[in-house]
Amino acid sequence: MGNRLVIPKPWWQVGLATLPGLIALAAQTASIVGLDTRLNSLLLPTMIVLSASSILWAAVRRRLFGVAAWGLIPLGLLAAMGLYEVSGVVFSWRTPLAFFLVLTLGFGLLLISLLLMVKPRPIARILPAIGGSLALSVAVAALLVFAYDGYGNWSLPKRYSTYFVLVTVGLFLVKHSGLCAGLFVLAGGTPLMGSHIEPAVFLWDSPFWDTFSDVSLTVFFFILTPIWVLRVRSVYGQAAGLLLPIAAYFVALVSALSAARGFSIAKSASISDPALDLLATIAVAVVLYGRVSSGLTAGET
Hints:
With 301 residues, this protein is mostly helical. It has 13 helices and no strands. The protein has one domain (11-300). Helices cover 79% and strands 0% of the residues. Helix 2 (19-32) runs antiparallel to helix 10, helix 8 packs antiparallel against helix 10 and helix 8 runs antiparallel to helix 13 (273-300). The radius of gyration is 20 Å and the shape is globular.
C-alpha cells in the first residue's frame, strides 16, 4: 500500500459524520452534570436518517455502493446491530454448522465484492475462477470449523467471524470511499468490542473511571477518528487516523482498570484484549482496502 494524496471531505460532510458521536458525547456530558436530556433517544433516528440520506446520495449520483461519507459510521453501527442479532441466534446452536454458515457468508461476500471490482469479462472466462474460489472458501471454512470443533468456547469464533463479515462488506465501499471504508468496519466493530470487555462490570463502583472509559471511547472512535480520516490529505494519514485512536483507547482503558481496581498492567491489558483484536481487524482492513483502492486507481489511469 503506497502513500498517495487524497481529497479531504468538505467540513459539512465531516460534521454529519461526527453527529452520532456528538449526540452521544452531549448525552454523556448531561449525565455527568445530572441533567436528564434524553438525548440518547435521538441516536437511533439520527443514524437511520444519516444512513438513508447517504444511500439516497449514492442513488442520485448513480454510484452503486458509493454512499456518502456521513453514512459510513451509522451504516456500520446498524450493520453491527443486525450481525449481533443474527450471530447470536446462529451461535446459540453451539455447533460447527453455525461457524461454517457465518464463514461461508463472509467468503461469499468477499468473492462477490472482488468480482464487482474487476473489469467486465465473458462469463465463460470467469466461471473457473468462481468455482475454484468457492471450493477454496468452503475448504477453508470447513478447516476452521474443524479446528474449533469441541473447543467449547464459541465467543472467539463468533467475534472473529463477525469481524470478518464486516471487513468483507466494507470491500463493497472501497471503490468510491477508499480507505474511509474503514470507518464502516470501526463503527461496526466497536459495539462488539464493548460487549466483550464490558468496562462497567469492573468500574461500576468508580463513577469517574466508568465515565472516563465511555467518554474516551466516544471521543476517540466517533469524533476524533472521522475528523482525522475524512480531513487528512494522504492515505498514510488515513491509516494513522483509523489505528492510533484505537491504540489510545486501549491505553486509556488499561489505565482506568489499573487505577480503579488496582489491577496489574498485565491483567488490565488482558481484560482489554478485545480492543487489540479490533485494532488488528482494522489493521487488516487498512492493508486490504489500501491495496484494493490503489489497484483501482492504477487501473483507471
